[in-house]
Every structure is written in structure tokens, then in C-alpha cells.
């Protein structure tokens, strides 16, 4: 027996379908897996014999159909003219245009490193009283109670004041209920409200509202400082004023300047105290709380004492006008000194110097008497009846007491400073904004959850009890002030009528100084608390890293103190100090706190309605309706107190939200907004399931089939560029790719491929979804993508795939067979198809076409895709300045003039601006060039078919030989190499044999068979030379050549040419000829988009 030496040689020929654009095929199969079936072929079921129902037009008569089918110039489309009629046929039946058919892995980040650095007690042991109740009382009671509540009662009256208190306290109570539910649904670390909102509503809402809460807390510190300075300059040490009024009318501006100077000094001193050590602030907290409680108790004691012994604070009245008491000593026009009647100090203020009989006095002073009334009549005086109703005033209006006799006379301007007047215009809405800060501070307990023995119990109980207590104090204080104090004194904001005493101090017992000193220290303490908490809140936001420009404020001293955040807080608080008016700062921080409370209620409502599995709060007394009511009240209070401040606060929050959305770090906190999005998406998808979209709503929902190279890089990124230009961010885009191999072994590669595709989508600005599948055969993977991509009504209706470049130069038919199979699948699925040819020449998103044309060659009507696509492309900046030209083909028996008019009318009805041209094609004879080209095409097909047959026989011989070495090959798992090809009908695994010599014994029969094959080769060559082309192929080639000549003649310089894509032959034997026809049809064109409709109308003339 002869011995043959067989040395396997690796095929060095380039694979033609490596350049197939638009589909991914990367082989990640394990080398030891089972070989695929070698006899798998393209199935002709389904797409090959699929018969579409015509959705466009009624069937024409058989004569016209016969002419359509067998026209020489349209032979390329003849098999589809029953469902895709000629344009001339369409236009002739649609002159009136009335027959158109209408048609997530990251969990919540634990701040373990931060927690380890933070000094915490060994075991939390604070109860409800010390841990929640008293801190909330200290934060809720503040400057408004002592400085403005009496004035609010005087202006609004008891009834409206009770309504104001009820609105504000109800809002905070409902917010506390929602906050208790959120706080008891897990541990709330530092950050309080920010943490609750961000983890419930996501980083965008959390960051926006967190910053609003921070700004509110910062402005609160400014408000408390301004309150303390007002007490200091008005009631404690008035002599400390630096600026003094040069005339009576400039006293307000002098006071504001004093407030600015002392407020800035106080802010600096407090910032130094906070910087040196927070522990000193915490140690003084008990003292400040004691001051608040003592002051409130003194108010109640004074009210009870006023029943029998009301304090002596006489009010001097001129007529019914209230006089500023510190400008004179005796409330009378004259005084008697040694039996001599002399003018009093009051007289000297209203009259010019001179004899009493000849003196020139103010008319109002002369005609009205001076009387003295009791400023604090007492609880049993019945003054409550007079104070029941509102008495709002305009700026500069003099305080008058209803019921006192008065002669209306013109008074002198020079004496205006002697009367007590309103410094600002008042209204119900203004008073709401001023009072609301006195109801804030309900988050103090939730911020201390780490120090509580039982936070799940203490936070709800302590917070709700604190709000109930403060609400009771406010309600009772309103009633007591209205029952004990004269109305003009209540409306006197700064106590000018009671010798510059603090109005609430006049009611207190044993002395007004108890209230003055107590309120001063309580406001200083509240300012320190705010100045301590605000930087830590900003630090918590900065450390979450959701707002890039705030990262620097996450750093601080070695002990964790937020130095940079404290500096920023001081600067922002200084802005509030420079406003210098407590009444103007209060509504600002009301906006920020109301917005924070609004989102706390929203967070609770969203979590409750979504029934999130993790939503299991221990606090059971909540309901989504209460949360929505609280949210509505917050929104109403924002616009009631100051609609323009409300809009500014919302704009600030909205800008922060959008900034975080576009620039912030990606966070997955399991927030409720994500669950809300899922619920909304589910609802929308179910709605979309009702039926297919109407023609007016149809837009291309793309499935882009991409190809990756062996390094998982997108081979043709311009496909994504084209998709982004066509979609302009609208509609659905799914980018699909196929990896050949075993899913169990290739999951890691699948994830890497998905990430590569997503990165390229981000670069090309494609907003959509990525879908990569692993399949044993790439052709089957493509079919799976076409069938299963999308969900419910959000499914693709258009497939975008690339052209199989180099298919002519390859002996392997797998590239173009997979391409044609995909075309058949899209047709079977009633999907539209777009094939960008020469896509590497397509423009990038950074290019601009300043001129040029987009040419549409409308040969057959397939739903209007050719009209819609250029309109969509022109919406993008790349194609916007291109002109649209529409060409259609007329035969010899067509009226081309009428066709042009009809087409122009049709485009006018479609609201599409385009130039119209009808190209006439004569019935010329088939040229020799066409005949020769068809002959060469069929000879090449026959030759490649014979070469594949002989190659298959040799392959079977090698396969038999390989069976002897199967055991050795299994041991060497690296002996199988990845195929260089992509789309294989057989999808074989090529085996790389070790390079050593292998001996094999051949039989005589095998040698004879090999010689017989070699002798048969010349006979096959002679058959090729005598081959005659098929007449149907000749007619199709004639159509392709003629159309190509016309298109190149008219559109050789066009920026883009859109062309009807003929369907593949129903007989699979002509697949290779079909590819040749398409090549001939598009020769000489730089950018071509082959378009194939999906079987339905996509554009309509109706509104």
C-alpha cells in the first residue's frame, strides 16, 4: 500500500463576508464543543413563498397587471408589481387622493468609611423625650413667635391668624406623618430630609431638593441672626446703633444699615464658634432650649396675671391716632407747673415756638384731643371682640383705634414721625410667608436617628408630639394676644407706642426683660444650630458625588468638620444678612422649606402607591391620600405666600435637577421614581397594545443590525450615525448584534459586546437600547432579533442592515446568502428595510451639507417610505440645507405631463416641498452589453457552483481522515480555530491540524475517483463556454442597466440617492443573480439608500 503524506495548510484567502456591513458575527465558541450540522441550508419556507396581501390599492384588471408584470424596463420588479404597483398606476388611480389607506445593579451605598471616622457613642441610648421631642421643640420655636406673632394677630385678626396657624401646622403635621413613614422604613443617616428624598425619589430629585433644603437652612440662620440683632438694637442696647437718622424719614434706612453691620459681625463670630468646635454649640443647646421654655411660660403667666392685675403700659392717642411714646414725657397738650399752664413736650412737637395763644400748630393736633388708653387691658377686658377681625394696612398708614372720636383734619408732614405707622404693606398672603418659618424644624428628630435607642418608635412619636405641642402653643398664643393686648399695640411691630418695649414682653411676667433676654438667647442658639447643620447637609450632598461642582465641599478638617462647606454657608447667609429685613428673608426660606416638605410627601405617596417590596415602614398611621393632601398644601402655601418666590424656587430646583440629570454621577438607590417610571412604562405599553399606530403616528422604529470585529469594536459606526440622523432622538432605536457560540460559555463576551455597542451609541448620540444575542448560527440569531426585539407595542418596524461588500470576490456564498435571508425575513415579518450602501461615505454628525440634493427615485409604490425618509433626514442639521428632488419613471404609454402634475399635487397634499421630474424610458431593445453581462453573471455562478461541489467532495475525504485523530484533537482544546467567516449556511468548524507529518493509507478506489474528477474538469469548462443566458435574467439585467443609466445621469452628484429595493426572487436558485442585479442598479453612485416598504401606508395627506 502506498503511503501519502498529508500536511494541512491554513487557508490564507481573505474572507469576503468579513466586510459584510451591518451584522455582527464573532465566534466565541469553545474549541471543544460539538461541531454544527454541515448540511444546514437556507430554508425556503416562509419568506421564500410568502404571499402578502395588498394593503394599498384595489387590484387592477388583468390586462394592466400583465403589462405591469412584463414591461421590459421594470422586469426587475415584476414579481412584486401585484403588491407594489408602478408609480404611474398609483397616480392614475389616486388623482383625487381619497383612496389612500388610513391607517441596574448598584445597591444603596453605605458610608462605612465615613461612619468609621465619625465618633459615635458605644450604644445609642437616647429616648423619645431627649432625642426627638425637645430638639424638635427647640428648632420649631423661634424668632417669629417672639418678634412677629403679636403683629400678625393685630393685622390679620384672631380668626385669620388662627387660619394661618392652622394651615402651616396642618402642613407640617401631614409632612411629619409622611416623614415618619419614610424614617421608619430603615435607618436614616446624616442628611435627614436630603437622605430620605434622594433615596426615595432618586438622585435628581434628592440633589435638587437637598440643595433647596440647604439654602432654606442657610437663610434660616440669617433670619435668626437678623432677629437677634433686632432684639439687640431695638430693645437691649439701642445706644449701640452706629448709623443714626439725619431726619425722621430716614430712620428705616439707618436701622437697616445697623442690621447689616451687626449682622455681619454676629455671623462671623458664630462661624468662628462653629469652626472651632461643634461640641460647644451642642453643650449650649440645653441653655438655649431653657430660654425658650422660660420665655413661653412667662407669657402664659403674664396672661393669667392680667385677669386681675394687668400690667401698666398706657398708650397715648391723639384723636384716634397712636403716638410714638418715647418722644415726650406727659400724654397731654399742656402741663401745670406752679399754677401756670405751660405747653408740654407734645405741644412743642406739633406747634411752632411762641405764645400758646398765638402759636401756629398742626390742624389735626388743634382739633383733636389727647387721650390715654390701657395698652394691656387684660384677659377679662373683652378686647377680644375688637381684635377678632383683620385690619391690613398700607405702607406709611397711621395706626388708628376704631371707636375713638376723631376730627378729620389735614395734618402737617413734619409731624408724621410722631405717629406710629406701618413700615410695610400687609396682606394675608404676606403674613402666611412670614409665619411659616415658625412651623419648620420638624426634621430635627430624624437627623438623630443614629443616637436613638428605638428610632422606629421615637421619631414618629416625638415629632408628632412636638408639632402638636407647638401648634397648641401657637393657637393659644393667638387667642391670648388677641384677648389681652390692645389692637393698636398688636399692630405696632416694634413697640413704639409702649416706649420701645417688645410687645410680647409687655404681657410677660414678672418682667419684660424675661422675654427680651430669653428670646435673644433662643434666636442666637437657633442661628448657631442652623449654621451648624447647613454645612453638614451640604457635605452629605457633596459626598454623594451627584453634583460634580460641589465635590470640593465634601472635604473638611481631619476630624470631618466641613470647613469649605461652612465657608460657603457663611457667604450665602451673608446675602440674607445684607437684605437686613426679617420680613423679607422669612418668605424666602419658607419657599425652600415648603419645597422640601412637598417632596417628602411626594416620596411617601409614590412609595405607597407603587407598593414597592422594600416599603415596609413600622409607622402604620399613614396613607397616600394624606401625603397628597400635604403635598397640595405645601404647593398652595408656596403660591399663597409669594408666587414669584415660588416660581424662583422651582426654577432653581428645576435647573439643579436638569444639571444632575445631564452631568451628575449615575446612582442606583432603588428610588421610587424608577419604580414610577416602570409603572408608567407598563401602562403605556399596555395602551399601545390596543392596536397598530395610525398612519399619522407612524415613524421608523429602527432595529440596526451591527457587526463587531474580533476585538468587539463596531466595524461600521456610520450605521449608527445614519440612525441618529434619521431618528433625531425620537422614537425607538434598538441596536442588535449576534455573537456565534454557546451562551453558557460566551456570557462574558456578550456583556463586553453590549458595553462596546453602548459606548459607540453614546459617541454617536443614539438614544435607544442594545440587544446582543449568542446563537450557534448567526443566521438564526438574526432571525431571533427580528422576531423578538422590543416589547409589546414598542417594537421595531424597520430593519437597517449593511451591504455585504466583497461578495463577488469570494468563492464562499455565505455572506450574500445571509443578506438575502435577512431580506426575506423582514418581508415575512412585514417590516420595512433600509440598506445604506457605501455607508463609510455617509456624513458624520459634525459635518454639514450647505448645498446639494437628496434624490428620491420612486419606481414602485410601497407605502410611502421613500417620501417620509428624506423628510425625516432633513430635520437633522447635517441634511437640513439639502434640496429634495423626486424622480419617477414613465413608460411609453404613460402620459408623463399628467403624471408630473399629479405627483406635484400629491406632494402638495403631503406638505412636502420637493422638485418633481418624470423620466421617460423608451422601449429600447436589449443591448449586447446587457446580454454579455448576463452571460458573464451566469457563467460565474455556474463556475462557483462546480468549484463548491468539488471542494465539498474533498472536504468529505478530509473529514473521514480527521475521524482517526478525534481523540488527540479533544485533548488539545486549542486546535480548533475560529472561523474567519460570518454568515455560513453550513457554519462548519475548521480544524487546525498539528504541523507534523501524518501518514494515511489510500485505497485504489479512492485514487481512481480522484483521477475521474480531474478528467471531468475540461468538460465542465466547455459547458461554461457554451452556456446561454436565461431570458428572464436578461430582462432583469436590462432593467437594472437602463435604470442605472438614468439614475447616474440625473443623480451622479446627489448627496444621497434613495431607491426602491427589489425583492429577492421567490426561487432560491436565483439568489446570486439578485445580488448582481442590485450591484448593477447602484453602480456609479456614491451614497445609496435601498429602501423596501413593510406592507403598509406610512404617510398620509390627511391631518
TrEMBL record:
Keywords: Cell membrane, Chloride, Glycoprotein, Ion transport, Membrane, Phosphoprotein, Potassium, Potassium transport, Symport, Transmembrane, Transmembrane helix, Transport. Residues 717-835, 848-1103 form the SLC12A transporter C-terminal domain. Belongs to the SLC12A transporter family. K/Cl co-transporter subfamily. It holds the Pfam family SLC12. It comes from Gouania willdenowi (Blunt-snouted clingfish). GO terms for biological process: cell volume homeostasis; chemical synaptic transmission; chloride ion homeostasis; potassium ion homeostasis; potassium ion import across plasma membrane. This is Solute carrier family 12 member 4. Residues 132-303, 403-703 form the Amino acid permease/ SLC12A domain. GO terms for molecular function: potassium:chloride symporter activity. It is a multi-pass membrane protein. The chain crosses the membrane at residues 205-226, 261-278, 285-303, 416-443, 464-490, 510-528, 564-582, 588-609, 621-638. GO terms for cellular component: plasma membrane; synapse. Gene3D superfamilies: Amino acid/polyamine transporter I.
Amino acid at each position: 500500500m502506498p503511503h501519502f503524506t498529508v500536511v494541512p495548510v491554513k487557508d490564507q484567502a481573505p474572507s469576503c463576508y468579513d466586510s459584510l456591513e451591518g451584522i455582527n458575527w464573532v465566534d466565541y465558541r469553545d474549541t471543544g464543543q460539538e461541531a454544527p450540522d454541515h448540511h444546514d441550508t437556507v430554508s425556503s419556507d416562509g419568506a421564500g413563498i410568502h404571499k402578502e396581501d395588498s394593503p394599498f390599492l384595489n387590484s387592477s384588471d388583468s390586462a394592466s397587471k400583465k403589462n405591469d408584470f412584463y414591461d421590459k424596463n421594470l422586469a426587475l420588479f415584476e414579481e412584486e408589481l401585484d403588491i407594489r404597483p408602478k408609480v404611474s398606476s398609483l397616480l392614475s388611480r389616486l388623482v383625487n387622493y381619497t383612496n389612500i389607506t388610513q391607517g441596574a445593579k448598584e445597591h444603596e451605598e453605605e458610608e462605612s468609611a465615613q461612619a468609621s471616622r465619625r465618633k459615635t457613642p458605644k450604644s445609642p441610648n437616647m429616648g423619645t423625650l431627649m432625642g426627638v421631642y425637645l430638639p424638635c421643640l427647640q428648632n420649631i420655636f423661634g424668632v417669629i413667635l417672639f418678634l412677629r406673632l403679636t403683629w400678625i394677630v393685630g393685622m390679620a385678626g384672631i380668626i385669620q391668624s388662627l387660619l394661618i396657624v392652622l394651615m402651616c401646622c396642618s402642613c407640617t403635621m401631614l409632612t411629619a406623618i409622611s416623614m415618619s413613614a419614610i424614617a421608619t422604613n430603615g435607618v436614616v443617616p446624616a442628611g435627614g430630609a436630603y437622605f430620605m428624598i434622594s433615596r426615595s425619589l432618586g438622585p435628581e430629585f434628592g440633589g435638587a431638593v437637598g440643595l433647596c433644603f440647604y439654602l432654606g437652612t442657610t437663610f434660616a440662620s440669617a433670619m435668626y441672626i437678623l432677629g437677634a440683632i433686632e432684639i439687640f438694637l431695638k430693645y437691649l442696647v439701642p445706644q449701640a446703633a452706629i448709623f443714626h437718622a439725619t431726619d425722621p424719614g430716614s430712620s428705616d434706612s439707618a436701622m437697616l444699615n445697623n442690621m447689616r453691620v451687626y449682622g455681619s459681625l454676629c455671623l462671623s463670630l458664630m462661624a468662628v464658634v462653629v469652626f472651632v468646635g461643634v461640641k460647644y454649640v451642642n453643650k449650649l443647646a440645653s441653655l438655649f432650649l431653657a430660654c425658650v421654655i422660660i420665655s413661653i411660660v412667662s407669657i402664659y403667666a403674664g396672661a393669667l396675671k392680667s385677669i386681675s392685675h394687668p400690667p401698666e403700659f398706657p398708650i397715648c392717642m391723639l384723636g384716634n391716632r397712636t403716638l410714638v411714646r418715647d418722644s415726650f414725657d406727659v400724654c397731654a397738650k399742656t402741663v401745670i407747673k406752679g399754677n401756670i399752664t405751660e405747653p408740654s413736650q407734645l405741644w412743642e412737637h406739633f406747634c411752632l415756638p411762641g405764645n400758646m395763644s398765638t402759636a401756629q400748630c398742626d390742624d389735626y393736633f388743634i382739633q383733636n384731643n389727647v387721650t390715654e388708653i390701657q395698652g394691656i387691658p387684660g384677659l377679662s377686658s373683652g378686647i377680644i371682640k375688637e381684635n377678632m377681625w383683620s385690619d391690613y394696612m398700607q405702607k406709611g398708614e397711621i395706626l388708628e383705634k376704631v371707636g375713638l372720636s376723631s376730627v378729620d383734619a389735614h395734618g402737617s408732614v413734619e409731624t408724621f414721625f410722631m405717629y406710629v405707622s406701618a413700615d410695610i404693606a400687609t396682606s394675608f398672603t404676606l403674613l402666611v410667608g412670614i409665619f411659616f418659618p415658625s412651623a419648620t424644624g420638624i426634621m430635627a428628630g430624624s437627623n438623630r436617628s443614629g443616637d436613638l435607642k428605638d428610632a422606629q418608635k421615637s421619631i414618629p412619636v416625638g415629632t408628632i408630639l412636638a408639632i402638636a405641642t407647638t401648634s397648641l402653643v401657637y393657637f393659644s398664643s393667638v387667642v391670648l394676644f388677641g384677648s389681652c393686648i390692645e389692637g393698636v399695640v398688636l399692630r405696632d411691630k416694634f413697640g413704639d407706642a409702649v416706649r420701645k418695649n417688645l410687645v410680647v414682653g409687655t404681657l410677660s411676667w414678672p418682667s419684660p426683660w424675661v422675654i427680651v433676654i430669653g428670646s435673644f438667647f433662643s434666636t442666637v442658639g437657633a442661628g448657631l444650630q442652623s449654621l451648624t447643620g447647613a454645612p453638614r447637609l451640604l457635605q452629605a450632598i457633596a459626598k454623594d458625588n451627584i453634583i460634580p461642582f460641589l465635590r470640593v465641599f465634601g472635604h473638611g478638617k481631619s476630624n470631618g468638620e466641613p470647613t469649605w462647606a461652612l465657608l460657603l454657608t457663611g457667604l450665602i447667609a451673608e446675602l440674607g444678612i445684607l437684605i437686613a429685613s426679617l420680613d423679607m428673608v422669612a418668605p424666602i426660606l419658607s419657599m425652600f422649606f415648603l419645597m422640601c416638605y412637598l417632596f417628602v410627601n411626594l416620596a411617601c405617596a409614590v412609595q405607597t402607591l407603587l407598593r414597592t417590596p422594600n416599603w415596609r415602614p413600622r409607622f402604620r398611621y399613614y396613607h397616600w391620600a394624606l401625603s397628597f393632601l400635604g403635598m397640595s398644601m405645601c404647593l398652595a402655601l408656596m403660591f399663597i405666600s409669594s408666587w414669584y418666590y415660588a416660581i424662583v424656587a422651582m426654577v432653581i430646583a428645576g435647573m439643579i435637577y436638569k444639571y444632575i440629570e445631564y452631568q451628575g454621577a449615575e446612582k442606583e438607590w432603588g428610588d421610587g421614581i424608577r419604580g414610577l417610571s416602570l409603572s408608567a412604562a407598563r401602562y403605556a405599553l399596555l395602551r399601545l397594545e390596543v392596536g397598530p399606530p395610525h398612519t399619522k403616528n407612524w415613524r421608523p422604529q429602527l432595529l440596526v443590525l451591527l457587526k463587531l470585529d474580533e476585538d468587539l469594536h463596531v466595524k461600521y459606526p456610520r450605521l449608527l450615525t445614519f440612525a441618529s440622523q434619521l431618528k433625531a432622538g425620537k422614537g425607538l432605536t434598538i441596536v442588535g448584534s449576534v455573537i456565534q457560540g454557546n451562551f453558557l460559555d460566551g456570557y462574558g463576551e456578550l456583556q463586553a459586546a453590549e458595553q462596546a455597542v453602548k459606548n459607540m451609541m453614546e459617541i454617536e448620540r443614539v438614544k435607544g437600547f442594545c440587544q446582543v444575542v449568542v446563537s450557534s448560527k448567526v443566521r438564526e440569531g438574526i432571525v431571533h432579533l427580528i422576531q423578538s426585539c422590543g416589547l409589546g407595542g414598542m417594537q421595531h418596524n424597520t430593519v437597517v442592515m449593511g451591504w455585504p461588500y466583497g461578495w463577488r470576490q469570494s468563492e464562499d456564498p455565505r455572506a450574500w446568502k445571509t443578506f438575502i435571508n435577512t431580506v426575506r425575513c423582514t418581508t415575512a415579518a412585514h417590516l420595512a428595510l433600509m440598506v445604506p450602501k457605501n455607508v463609510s461615505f455617509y456624513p458624520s454628525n459634525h459635518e454639514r451639507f450647505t448645498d446639494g440634493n437628496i434624490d428620491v427615485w420612486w419606481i414602485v409604490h410601497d407605502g410611502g417610505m421613500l417620501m417620509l425618509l428624506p423628510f425625516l433626514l432633513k430635520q437633522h442639521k447635517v441634511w437640513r440645507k439639502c434640496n429634495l428632488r423626486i424622480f419617477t419613471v414613465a413608460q411609453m404609454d404613460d402620459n408623463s405631463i399628467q403624471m408630473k402634475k399629479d405627483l406635484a399635487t400629491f406632494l402638495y397634499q403631503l406638505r412636502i416641498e420637493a422638485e418633481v421630474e418624470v423620466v421617460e424610458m423608451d422601449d429600447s431593445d436589449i443591448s449586447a452589453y446587457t446580454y454579455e453581462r448576463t452571460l458573464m453573471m451566469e457563467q460565474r455562478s455556474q463556475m462557483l457552483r462546480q468549484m463548491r461541489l468539488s471542494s465539498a467532495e474533498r472536504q468529505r475525504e478530509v473529514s473521514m481522515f480527521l475521524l482517526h485523530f478525534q481523540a488527540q484533537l479533544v485533548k488539545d482544546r486549542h486546535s480548533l480555530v475560529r472561523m474567519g467567516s460570518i454568515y455560513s449556511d453550513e457554519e462548519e468548524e475548521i480544524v487546525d491540524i498539528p504541523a507534523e507529518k501524518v501518514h494515511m493509507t489510500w485505497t485504489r478506489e479512492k485514487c481512481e475517483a480522484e483521477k475521474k474528477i480531474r478528467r471531468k474538469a475540461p468538460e465542465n469548462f466547455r459547458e461554461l463556454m457554451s452556456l446561454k443566458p436565461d431570458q428572464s435574467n436578461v430582462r432583469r439585467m436590462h432593467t437594472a442597466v437602463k435604470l442605472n443609466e438614468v439614475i447616474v445621469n440625473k443623480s451622479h452628484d446627489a448627496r444621497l440617492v434613495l431607491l426602491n429595493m427589489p425583492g429577492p426572487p421567490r426561487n432560491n436558485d436565483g439568489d446570486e443573480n439578485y445580488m448582481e442585479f442590485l450591484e448593477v442598479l447602484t453602480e456609479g453612485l456614491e451614497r445609496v439608500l435601498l429602501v423596501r416598504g413593510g406592507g403598509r401606508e406610512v404617510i398620509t395627506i390627511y391631518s
